[in-house]
Each structure stands twice: as C-alpha cells, then as structure tokens.
C-alpha cells in the first residue's frame, strides 16, 4: 500500500520462513543478514571520517527535524514489516532506483499487504525528513521490522567463482565492505548456504551443468548479480619433465575445460546483467588472468595454465567489444611486476589485495577500459 505520512497504522512483526533472498532482508533474527554489517560499517566510517564542520552541520540538521515529524517517522517505520520510502508509487515509480527496489522486492515474493510505501515526491517535508531521520542521503530507503537496512545497495551482488583463500577471499572482502552481497563458488565450500555473511555454493568449473546450476541457485537466493569474478585455475604438469607430450590427454582436456567454464559463466552472467534491476548499476565480468597467453613460449609445467587462460582471454577480448552499447564490461586482469613481467613469488604472495583494489576500480569504471588490464 502507498500512503502519505499521516496514514500510519500498526501491524505485527513478520518474516519469511523459507531460506531466500527475502529472508536475508526481512528476517530480523537472521544472524547473517548480508549487507547490514557493511551498511553499519559505512555509516560508522562516515562519522569517523567527517570533519568537525560536517558533524556540526549534521547535528544541526538532526535538531531541525521537528519532534512531530520525527515521531511520525518513528511510528511509520514500525507500522509494517516492510516500509519503503521511494520516489513515486510501486505502480508508477519516478526514478530508476525506486523502480528497481520495487522489482526486486516483488521478484523475491514480498507480499504487497506486508509492505507500506511512501512517495517522498508528494511531501517535501517527508523527502528531507527521512534523510535526516535515517542519516542516509538518498532515496529509496527500506526499513524492515523498524530497522533501516539500506536502499539501492540491496541490488548489488557478486558471484566469485574460484573462491580460495588468496585472490578470491580478498576480492570477496573488498566487495562485502562496500555493500555487496557476496556469493562464493568453489568445488569444496566449507559449507553450503550462509556463513560469515557470505553465501557459499558448490560449483565444478569443469562441468557445464554444475556452473549453470550454481548460477541459478545464486540468483534464486540473492537475486541477479551485477558483478562476476572468474578466479578458477589449475595446473597439470607432464609426468616426465623432459617429455612435454607425456602429459595425458585427459589432463589437458580437464585443464582447458576450465577456460571453457569461463565462457559458460559469462553466458549465465549476461542474463543477470541484463535484468531491469541493474539498469542503473555497474556490470562487470572479470577473469583473473596471467601473462602466459601473450608469450611465444610456455614452459611445459605451465602450459596447461596458459592454455586455459588463453581460451578465456580470447573471448573476453571479443565480449569487451560486443557489449559496449549495453555498458557491460569484460576484463582479463593480470598481476605483473613493476617491469611488466611475471610477478616474483614474493610479489604474488602480496598480490591478493592488489587484485581486490584493482577489481574494485574496474567495477566502478564508467566505461569499458582495455580488456587486457595489467
């Protein structure tokens, strides 16, 4: 229902019992509500980083909110299990972000009778007041069981395939810190489902059906993702180091299938990227690369790794051109030494955070940069 601020009523607490994206945001008792820690951390960081003049202005703004309006807002956010402050109405949203929030709530089965909406465009006092009330500068805003849980940040999500303890873990932490819902895919996850604020899913990158099923699970639980990182890799060395072709055909096929897996993952990603929910969001597919595909010679022990990266690198190059008009970006990102060569073992050991920082820059770039990002 949509109403003015004066239409505040009362209702009981409610939460979805089945495990889904909706349960993350609607169940106030759920210990792993993914984006709440990131949201609170961001708010705390803002307070810590703000200069005294900004803090003073925020305090003045806080005092400017009348007791009457504050009381009405306090009652409004607690009146229904889900309260949405938006521009326009669910039937006629007046901005892309408000439309996207309504769509994702509908997509995940939030029943209209459990949601109260307020059109901030119909009431200037409400529009400015809700921002001061929540200390959050933008609309839409969602409250669940009286608690502010976010706005458009509920729309952004990532699926990291090949979520090990090095690059995958660093990228996951970086995105989670910045408000992303994070799904981690690996062959042997420590558990399936939610743990440590991440969603874990089992995926075999050498198997098409497994990759496709993992994507379907992630979309069902978290909603369409707008960032996918393909971090999977393997190395198979010839049994006889002096005889390159002693490498078993099966080992070569298994290795190259990981490169083909990146192509399958990209195809599944495209459907999520094209969701109406992400019209306003960055959309990126990033493969963790290396320099082997660009060298004239690969040592026998590293040949299979170079082959799988060459497969993924070539399709990334083509995709980066093919989807520019939709602003869907594709990158083959490679850590290199200061001289532009393979990183030393010491540099590679310290490279996890470098990957995370650069991937974050690529995700937030306004347009496609060089697909071969070193």
Automatic annotation (TrEMBL):
> Which InterPro entries does the entry link to?
Glutaredoxin (IPR002109), GRX_PICOT-like (IPR033658), Monothiol_GRX-rel (IPR004480), NAD(P)-bd_dom_sf (IPR036291), SDR_fam (IPR002347), Thioredoxin-like_sf (IPR036249)
Which UniProt keywords are present, listed alphabetically?
A: 2Fe-2S, Iron, Iron-sulfur, Metal-binding, Redox-active center
* Protein name (record): Monothiol glutaredoxin-5, mitochondrial
Which GO molecular function entries does the Swiss-Prot or TrEMBL record give?
Answer: 2 iron, 2 sulfur cluster binding; disulfide oxidoreductase activity; metal ion binding
Query: Where is the Glutaredoxin domain positioned along the sequence?
Result: 82-149
Protein origin, superkingdom: Eukaryota
The record, for Gene3D superfamilies, names:
Glutaredoxin, NAD(P)-binding Rossmann-like Domain
Question: Could you tell me which Pfam families the record lists for this protein?
Answer: adh_short_C2, Glutaredoxin
Q: Which PROSITE patterns match?
A: GLUTAREDOXIN_2
Any one GO CC term of this protein is: mitochondrial matrix
Native organism is Psilocybe cyanescens
Which PANTHER family does its entry note?
A: GLUTAREDOXIN FAMILY MEMBER, GLUTAREDOXIN-RELATED PROTEIN 5, MITOCHONDRIAL
Q: Name one GO biological process term.
A: [2Fe-2S] cluster assembly
